[in-house]
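Field reference: sequence -> structure
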Amino acid sequence: MKKIADAGLLIAFLDRRDEYHRWASSVFENESPPFYTAEPILAEVSAVLESADEVLQMVEVGDLVLGLNLGDEVSAVRALVQKYKDRKMDLGDACCVRLAEMLSGSIVYTVDERDFRVYRKNGRQPVPCIFPD
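Structure field:
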């Protein structure tokens, strides 16, 4: 199974004050790397944490793998953003859904249950997700 890391998981893991920190820490303790992600997700994490160092270190050591080339996937990602324009799907969420389409048998780790319960991959298939307890 391939694991996909949404921004919420990474933010919670790297910010000890985050309400989901314990959950995110348990994910990284119990699941072996790598986690797949995309550059827009790293940018979101860096902006929220006001630092890129820790998340870039995770890429450097192989805990995170950039599994989506936005240049190659822009049409598919844009189609998702357009499909969910009423929910104001952000770029990071669109990248996670696209990764779920590309990586067979994958699962998204996210704190964003409200949106990811609605999103669909490959048309009508629910996006498999793990949410905080």
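Note: The first strand starts at residue 3 and ends at 5.
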